[in-house]
Amino acid sequence: MTVYLGRARRGPSFTLRPTLRLRLTLLNGILLVGAGAILVLLAWLLVGDVMHPAVGLQPGSTVTLADGRSVDAAQWQETLVDQAAREMLAKGLAALVAIGIIGIAGAYAVAGRALRPLHTVTQTARRLGEETLDQRIRYSGADDEVAELARTFDAMLDRLAGAFESQKRFVANASHELRTPLAVMRTEIDVTLTDDEADVAEYRRMAKVVRNASERANGLVDALLVLARSEAQSGRRLVRKVPADMAMSVTNALSAVKAEAERLKLDVTTDLQPAMVVGDPSLLDRLAGNLIENAIRYNHLLGKLWLRTETVNGQARLIVGNTGYEVEPGDVPGLFEPFRRGGWERTGSRGSGLGLSIVRAVCDAHGGTVSAVAQAGGGLEVMVSLPTADTTPVVAASASVPRAKGLGIA
């Protein structure tokens, strides 16, 4: 029987921790021996009740034994019952011991066979690491609870592998995006400093390039912080929940990019009806701002931009559509991944590629959904759907300061 030695926490002492296999074996053994003991006891008690060969004889009758002796029939019956009870008890206990040993050994073997996939799960978990997430159990036994556990474990490993791979890509892309403006700043500074004939105008030009690059790096860092903040509050674990109108967020975001829209001479159409939700207003403002900024950034001269907010079937909707560059329908889901720009994935393109990924994270934090449809003539229409304020409770933060004792503070 296998036992695990518990790790000593203090001093050299340790404790024995029985395995699940041992506990199942002991349980089966106790049940088997207990049932056998009850049967032996019942048999022993029934012997005296069923053995009455002299009941129908006359009082004073005698029985002649094989050796020629004659004994009283009642005495002979008593002796016979006692002897039968002793033999039955002795043989029953011997059989019980034999059955118990065989049953416990069989239970130990059966439990070991049944729990073998669990040992496989344990060994696989011990071998797992960032470089070995491709290993799976791939259980092929009976479709029972153990098989369900193995499938669940394999599915969890698939999710972990996907998360690690996504994290690696995210870190690599973030490093690349940050390296670009830093490299631009360093190159401009080095070139200008090594130029002995550089004048004030050259230094001013260098300062403008460095400022633009620093603004780009700062914008990327801000976007990363917003993305991290949004993903940390996923699953409706918002730190702040107050009533907010998405129509107001759209109005504020549209006013912030009004100059850019006028520069491109966009035809802006709005239909802003009240769309009350409960959530973090700053995140909702960033959601609307990112959608509108993307709709303008990837639009073209004399293009169109349409905005609509509404409430339908307990869902507050925000729809932002634009004309612009053609997007393949198969590429639409990938646009919500970090650092994806929909055909503009190259150094020097405007934006950090985090706009729609922030939108997705904010929607998830508010318990909503986001979808996008590629337009036939080019452009994209994005629809955000969040639960309305009627279906979402408002969490009012409160704090109390306990009264200090012995300080005379009222």
Automatic annotation (TrEMBL):
Domain Histidine kinase: 173-390
Record field: transmembrane: 26-47, 92-111
Keywords for the protein's UniProt record, in alphabetical order: Kinase, Membrane, Phosphoprotein, Transferase, Transmembrane, Transmembrane helix, Two-component regulatory system
Subcellular location per the Swiss-Prot or TrEMBL entry: Cell membrane
GO molecular function list: kinase activity
Enzyme class: transferase
Catalyzed reactions: ATP + protein L-histidine = ADP + protein N-phospho-L-histidine
Main location per the UniProt record: membrane
CDD domains (UniProt xref): HAMP, HATPase, HisKA
PROSITE patterns: HAMP, HIS_KIN
Database matches in InterPro entries: HAMP_dom, HATPase_C_sf, HATPase_dom, His_kinase_dom, HisK_dim/P_dom, HisK_dim/P_sf, Sig_transdc_His_kin-like_C, TCS_sensor_his_kinase
HAMP domain: residues covered: 112-165
EC number(s) on file: 2.7.13.3
Gene3D superfamilies assigned to the protein according to its UniProt record, in alphabetical order: 1.10.287.130, 6.10.340.10, Histidine kinase-like ATPase, C-terminal domain
Listed name of the protein: histidine kinase
